[in-house]
Amino acid sequence: MKTSTTKTAATKTTAAKKTTTAKSSTTKKTGTNGTVKAKSNAAEGLRSLFEDSLKDIYWAEKALTKALPKMAKNATSPELKAAIENHLSETEEQITRLEKVFEAVGKKAVAKKCDAMDGLIKEGEGIMEETELGVVRDAGIIAASQKVEHYEIATYGTLYAFANILGETEAAELLATTLEEEKNADVNLTEIAMASINIEAADQEEE
Q1: CA angle 61, 63, 65 (to 5 degrees)
Q2: How many whole angstroms separate alpha carbon 67 and alpha carbon 78?
Q3: Cα distances (Å, whole numbers) of residue 48 to 96, 154, 159, 162
Q4: Would the CA dihedral through 44, 46, 49, 50 be positive or negative?
Q5: Are 159 and 47 spatial neighbours (Cβ–Cβ below 8 Å)?
Q6: Residue 27's pLDDT is what?
Q7: For 176, phi and psi rounded to 5 degrees?
C-alpha cells in the first residue's frame, strides 16, 4: 500500500511540475494583463515592420514556386492547369521584383519563414490528399489557391500602403504591380471555377 501511495504522489508531483512549466512558458509570452511580450528584435517603427514583412512575403513567394508545380500536376482541367502554370511564371517574376524592392529601400534580400503561407500550402496539400483526382480535386485546388491569393492581396496591399507612407515611391510602384497581378489571378480562378468546375463537381456529388 505504501508503494502505491508513493507512486501516486510522485505522479501528482510530475503533473504539477508540467503544469507549472506550461504556465511559466505562457507567462513569458503573455503579460499578466494579456498583452503579448515582444521579442528582443521586435520592430520599433513602421519601417522595421515594413522590412520584416518584405522578408515574410519573399519567403512565401519562393515557397510557392515549389508548391504550384504540384498543384498543376494534380489539376485535370486544362484551364486550371494553364492558370496555375501562368501564375508560376508570374511568381518567379514577383520574386525578382521583390529583390528590386529590397534594393530600392537599401536592404539585402533576405527570406524569413512565413508561418501563414506555410500553413496555407500545407492545407492545399491536405485538400489534394482528401479528394480523388478529377473535378472535385480541381475545385479543392481552386479553393486552396484563392486562399493563397487573398493572403497575398492583403500582404501586398499593406506593403504598398506602408511604402507610400514611408516615402518609398519606387518600392510602392513595384509592389502595386504585383498587387494587381494577384488580384487578376484571383479573378481568373473565380471565373474558371464558376464557368464549369464547381458545377461539374456539384453534379458528381448528385451521381
Answers
A1: 75
A2: 18
A3: 21, 18, 12, 11
A4: negative
A5: no
A6: 47
A7: -65, -35
pTM score of the predicted model: 0.82
Alpha-carbon dihedral of residues 85, 93, 64, 60, nearest 10 degrees? -160
Convert the pLDDT of each residue in 62-99 to its tens digit: 999 999 999 999 999 999 999 999 999 999 999 999 99
Label residue 13 left, alpha or beta by phi (over 0 means left) and psi (-120 to 50 means alpha): alpha
pLDDT (0 to 100) of residue 69 = 97
What are the DSSP E strand ranges found in the chain? none
Residues of the chain below pLDDT 70? 1-32, 42-43, 205-207
Look up residue 3 and give its three cell numbers: 508503494
Rounded Cα distance between 203 and 207, Å, is: 7
Contact indicator for 124, 148 with CB cutoff of 8 Å:
yes
- Helices 135-165/78-104 angle, 10° precision: 20
DSSP-based three-state secondary structure for 133: coil
How many CB atoms within 10 Å of residue 97?
16
Q: How far apart, in whole angstroms, are the C-alpha atoms of residue 116 and residue 53?
A: 12
Any residues with CB less than 8 A from the CB of 57 and at least 6 apart, and which? 98, 114, 152, 155, 156, 159
